[in-house]
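Thread title: Can someone regenerate the structure for this chain?

I was given the following input by a collaborator and told the matching structure tokens would be attached. They weren't. Posting the sequence so someone can regenerate them.
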Amino acid sequence: MIDIHSHILFNIDDGAETLEDSVKLCRDAADNGVKLITATPHFFDYSHIRSFVSERNHKISVLREILDEEDIPISVAAGSELFLNDKVFSAGDLDALTINGSRYMLCEFPLGPFDIDRAPLWIDELISRGYTPIVAHPERYIEFHRNLYIIDELLDREVVFQVNIDSLTGKNGEEPQKMAVDMVMRKIALLIGSDAHDTEYRHTRLREKFKDLPEFIDERILLDCMDKNAKAILKNEEI
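Best answer:
Regenerated them for you:
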């Protein structure tokens, strides 16, 4: 099993605070059947791409060393969660922000109100640069709920959608759950991630979360979204 979206890196965003937190998140993930986890820290500052990548890579290296020393059987891949706004149009080279050096770029929109007409333009900019956008947790965006047509508009651009497992369990509320479940069951969303931020509430203990999923989200669906499709992303293959 692969966790394609997480904030396990210490002291780089609003996720893990300490190296100890990072190690526990990885240990918990491994204990719950995750073989590989992608570190996707939030990226906001388009004027400091190089320094962000340097910090991310250093912290992944430190984390990998500890995981090896403590014999925790999990691999860590590099990525980011790119916050989309008009600064993307003048951004420099974004290649180092993709997932595992692939063409796939995990990206997010504002959770609060924003001009929904900007969304396709930001996505088109990424596509024009040769990236395939992965839209993180569409079920969490208030403007997506207000403007449901945006899902089809982005699908026409062949983006990939990733929903959070906490949304599928209902932990994020009724409306996010309805949208997330619908997208997974209709195979609109092809990826499920933990979006883990901490060791207690938004954690990496996925098997604990599985028991709270609707019963019709069966093992086959989970394996497609958290194994087969996630592997394709990491290998830069079509899904």
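The beta strands are 2-6, 36-39, 42-43, 75-78, 81-83, 104-108, 132-136, 160-164, 189-193.
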